[in-house]
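Re: [help] complex structure
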Amino acid sequence: MENDKTADSTCSCAPKSDKLSFITFTHDIPACEILTITSTLTLKDRFGHFLARWGVNRMGYIVKPNLYKLGNPDADSPVFVSANYTMSFDALRSALAGIDCYILVLDTKGINVWCAAGKGTFGTEELVRRISWSGLSDIVQHRTIILPQLSAPGISAHEVQRRSGFRVEYGPVRANDLAEYLKTHKATPEMRRVHFSLWNRLVLTPMELVHAALPTLAVAIVLYFLAGPLAALAAITTVLTGTVLFPVLLPFIPTHDFSTKGLILGEIVAIPFALTFAADSVTSLWPNVLKALVFLLVMPAVTAYLALNFTGCTTFTSRTGVKKEIFRYVPFMAFIAGSGIVISILLGIFRLMKVI
Amino acid sequence: MFDSYVENTLQYYPDKCINCLRCTQVCPHGVFSEGKEHVELVRPAACMECGACALNCPVQAIEVQSGVGCAWAMISAALRGKDMDSAECGCGDGSCCGGNSKNPFLIEKL
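Output below.
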């Protein structure tokens, strides 16, 4: 990253010492100091992205809300708008390599574009306020701003135009399509569509795992002492199935609902554990059957619940649909999980009583 | 029976439509398509109720009860004694999204 930042500033809205190494200060805009950036992503940037995917300092991974310039823009150069989440910002600036432009970064509280739009932080109010604050109307001659398409749930384009004088143009979904889009300022239907590819799903799994890691470890330790290493392994396997295997296999599992997909996948994963216990020659048949049943009941229930929670990470689940899923399947999940736990408690009691 | 996503709250009033095509520009699932006199509703079941179309329609030809399609957020709201429909994405509050988002993969996008 370049780091030729200068120290002095006379502008009232000039930033204080900024730690972003790709930023340099310029002094040619009296209304508000514009920060200069490059489109180059360094190894440090990419490492930062990697850490953020694992949840390391995620909320600290932000860009200063401000007006930035890339290359040597003039009064006719395009103006893009982005969130102040570093990875959103980096995706945009790297996609704009070789394009002289301005980037107006809103204060989205470190949240990416689509989610910030959903929460209202990437919204009409913030956009109108930032346009005014940055003095954009004095910096460019035209009155068009290019927004990410996925910011639309938070933006009322006609309201922005009425209040700021700037016409909102929605760019494509993916930053990689920007160069092509800018040739005609028209997006193809494909550019307008959001997908949920294997890679998209895979990059979600580290965060899912991080959130589940501690509780899983605690449960596994308890199960290790209560029921042995295989039970502990079953707990870890269940969580890995729900948080990693499920996202990977999402499109390939039959049925449409996440809960039923999770039940199917959990049942498949439970079978080897169930068979292992069922084939135990040390104890008699009926305790073995009950032990096997515990796995066949609990593992699918937990996997299904984790699968249902994955709705929050997807690009296509509606609130209406998720609500239906919750009412349809959560009681059933609770019932089978509860049944499995009750059976395992009974087995423990029988063992203490030396019945089995 | 096993598809909870067939129905949603999307309502479209073609008689109000002025054919500005905003909805076709903002919908990430191709729910709307350009028509002759007005926009056509071609994939209603694909609507994820994000609300972008309704918010950007200058003549209120579209209505949708937008909200977060996130079970974690809805169940959390219910457990706190709140209405599930009032659930908000917990982005940045240590939710499933962590500090990033409901859809962390969107970092790959604009």
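The beta strands of chain A are 24-25, 35-37, 67-70, 79-82, 101-105, 144-147, 167-170.
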